[in-house]
Amino acid sequence: MSEAIERFFESLPARAPEVLRGLLSGALQIDLATGQETQHWLVRMRPGEIEVGRHRGPADAIWYSSADLFERLVTGEAQGVAAVLRNESTFSGNVVLFLAFRRFFPDPPGTRDPREVARRQTGRLA
Amino acid sequence: MTDLVSILDGNTFLVSDRRGDIEPSFDFPTGLFSFDTRFLSTWLLTLDGERLHALSIDQAESYSTRFFLAPGEPTHYLDAKVSVIRSRAIGGSFREELTVLNHLREPVEFMVRLDVGADFADIFEIKAARQKKGRTTATVSGNELRLVYRRDAFHRETVISTSEPGEIDVAGMTFRIRIEGHGEWTTRLHVVTVVYGARGEDIRATLPYGGSRDAAAIEAEQNELIARAPKLGCDCQPLAGAYRRSLNDLAALRYESIALGVRLLAAGLPWFMTLFGRDSIFTSLQVLPFLPELIPPTIQILGGLQGHRVDDFRDEEPGKILHELRYGETAGFEEQPHSPYYGSADSTPLFVILLDEYERWTGDSQLVRLLESRARAALDWIDTYGDLLGTGYIWYQTRNPRTGLPNQCWKDSLDSISYADGRLPGFPRATCELQGYAYDAKIRGARLARTFWNDPAYADRLEREAAELKQRFNHDFWIPEKEYYALALDADGRQVDALSSNIGHLLWSGIVDESRAGRIAEHLLGPRLFSGWGVRTLADDQGRYNPIGYHVGTVWPFDNSIIAWGLWRYGYREEAGRISDAILAASRFFDGRLPEAFAGYNRDLTDYPVRYPTACSPQAWSTGTPLLLLRVMLGLEPQGDHLIIDPAVPEGMGRIELLDIPGRWGKVDALGRSRTPTNHRP
Q1: What does the pLDDT look like over B597-627, one tens digit per residue?
Q2: Which residues contact B113 (CB under 8 A, 6 or more apart)?
Q3: How confident is the model at residue B10 (pLDDT cuts 50, 70, 90)?
Q4: Which domain of life is it from (chain A) (predicted)?
Q5: Which residues of A touch B303 (CB under 8 A)?
């Protein structure tokens, strides 16, 4: 399992108060495949809180991805909904948990604040 | 497109010619579509090698059609020895019953051939044909033809089967049949569309409603929805017809989201059979007094898919409400940004407006509490990412120059925002109605914060900001010498001075100074904007005016319904009534089904509303228009736990009676009557 994925899961509890502001609760199992091997992660989400474990459910939803795709998601290079639409990643169960969890994924690398870009372009920012 | 025949069930729809045939087309989306993929691009029937032509077509229902056909070209005297009936219905899958009738006394042998093909084109590939990146294969087994498309893990299938045996090949089916004198032969064709998802199962198999329903189930569901809606009794036949038609079409446009398992409203046939933020919010606002139960899934899904990161390809920002969600190949492989795409600057304030309006009607405070963080994030967006230039207004400029939308307001075509002389301003742009929506969102957000979120300080702040915005707006957008609000500000903060229908939306949002409302009403009903059938998108003396230009001169029924609501808000009941009357009169020429838009020619020039060549129909927010007009004419407004009924029925419309209007008051009836008797004979 890559270091980026490990670091991503480690960072979740500290980020949960900011990211999980809705009233949603539930457990999402994330199955990450590398070749024939599958690693399981289980995240239990509550308002403002997340608990991360390295094991299977019980879960309200399961999300399947290759470890490779997941690494691109946690670095912002790939986007979750598009990956599901092209069936590179799939899920079953309560989709709302998937939509909530994807909020932990970062901006694409190198993204600039659009306000700064627009204000420079119109001469409002030197 | 009057020469095409469409049937639909949610976002599965079929468009064919008047013979019931489908031939590969790359300009207009003909074929069988589901979830933005074309599953049939060829469906062509011949009898003894000859094409058929239509004697008549029965199109009474939205989900089924019956074609009566005979061989050869039409002639004055037709003495067909044989005829064909194609009876088809759509309900997730597609079924066609094909019957050949021999009208002679003696037996006849026929060769019935059905050419079948699927190009699996994404809806975005219809206008710009290109080589598919994946591979299509065809296999035959028993009474079944299976067409398979694969691109990496993306996997779609069309499975065509026949109840009667035939010779099946990879390009269709041939039936060599012998029919006795005055006899008939029938086969039932079934076309199943498969969208593969988790663990190689059809994704819809796991959805609560399932993918496939038969016509009886659709009919039952439509009837149930119509039975729940308030009952309309009126003297005005166009109104009665449009109301009934609207309820039918709203039922037909509901679809089950492939990813989300909830029932949403598709925006419009054929191009927009998917979820749009703006369209679904406006439609929800229109239908709320009639069918409030349609609203929560829409609000929740828009909240669930709220933007959370800065993504230039998708024009996404934290707090922003989506513009368009697609399910097809181009979205999945990121050749188009609709996963979802966030390129609209109005859906975010409109989201807050809808949430508030929904609670005012239904008293469903639970949803307002559930979505507090989403609504706050939307309100934050208005003053952060929305205010691109830091001037206190909502601005837009796409960061995806290749596949993004240059205009991110409801008038989203390329030339929709112009100066009076026709020049186009640069970017970013701040159109006027966006500022009105922002104002209204703050006022309504303040009510939600005070009443449900226990945050009076936030409510005070929002109200203060709204008041400042109104003052600033009335200074910066008002053109004193022309006495109307500019369509937009350009990147330098100068007024984009075209006279447009957008000023009507300003009345709806309440940002117009009382002292100026009368002048705005005069413009809206004046000869430059009002065609006699409705308010044009752009006044007829403006540089870019074109009566058949998409957003630069046509009349949009939805636009007019919002304008009528705005006129009512400022007390201009007679003016609101004139617009209502004009739009309802126009609906008569479309069998009660108002299209997306129609031409802006003067009423006395044409005597009937001229069709816009490629208008979508049914289109959700046109479908919702008669409902909102009813609300405006009856003056229905929730106040606390009561419904205020203050009718102002236009002259000549007679009696309007709406029974069992649902809401937090239970159910109430409303009755209105115009002062003069009816013009419209029932």
Answers
A1: 999 999 999 888 998 877 677 889 999 999 9
A2: B45, B46, B47, B49, B172, B173, B174, B175
A3: confident
A4: Bacteria
A5: 22
Q: Which residues contact B664 (CB under 8 A, 6 or more apart)?
A: B361, B362, B363, B638, B641
- Report the C-alpha dihedral over residues B321, B323, B328, B329, rounded to 10 degrees: -90
Cβ of B428 within 8 Å of Cβ of A81? The answer is: no
Of B259, B333, B388, the CB nearest to A115: B388
Q: How far apart are CA B547 and CA B4, in angstroms?
A: 24
In the block, residue with structure tokens 């089950």 = B256
- Chain B nearest-CA residue for A90: B198
Residue type, B79: D
Q: CB pairs below 8 Å between A and B: how many?
A: 113
Name the nearest CA neighbour of B439 among B494, B485, B491, B404: B485
The domain locations on chain A are 3-121
**How many beta carbons lie within 10 A of that of residue B233, not counting itself?**
12
DSSP state of B614: T
All residues of chain A having their beta carbon less than 8 Å from the beta carbon of residue B369 are 23
Distances (CA, A) of B628 to B12, B237, B401, B518: 27, 17, 36, 22
**C-alpha dihedral, B48 to B54 to B56 to B62, nearest 10°:** 100
CATH code assigned to B234-673: 1.50.10.10
Q: Is the pLDDT of residue B57 over 70?
A: yes
- According to CATH, the topology of domain A3-121 is Nonspecific Lipid-transfer Protein; Chain A (3.30.1050)
| Residues B436-450 pLDDT 10s | 999 999 999 999 999
Residue contact A114–B310, C-beta within 8 A: yes
Q: Which CATH class is domain B4-206?
A: mainly beta
Q: b/e for B363-397, b at 16 or more Cβ within 10 A?
A: ebeebbebbbbbbbbbbebbbbbbbbbeebbbbbb
CA distance B655 to chain A (A): 47
| Antiparallel, parallel or unpaired: β A26-34 and A61-66 | parallel
Across the interface, whether the CB atoms of B304 and A96 are under 8 A apart is answered yes
Show me where the domains of chain B are located.
Answer: 4-206, 234-673
CB contact under 8 A, B310 and A84: no
The helix/strand/coil state of A83 is helix
Decide if A90 and B328 are in contact by the 8 Å CB cutoff: no
CB-count exposure of residue B68 (10 Å: 0-12, 13-18, 19+): middle
Question: Does residue B558 surpass a pLDDT of 50?
Answer: yes
Q: Which residues pair with B136 in a beta bridge?
A: B149
Helix axes B277-287, B295-304, angle to 10 degrees: 150
Residue A2: per-residue pLDDT: 86
Read off the amino acid at residue B408: Q
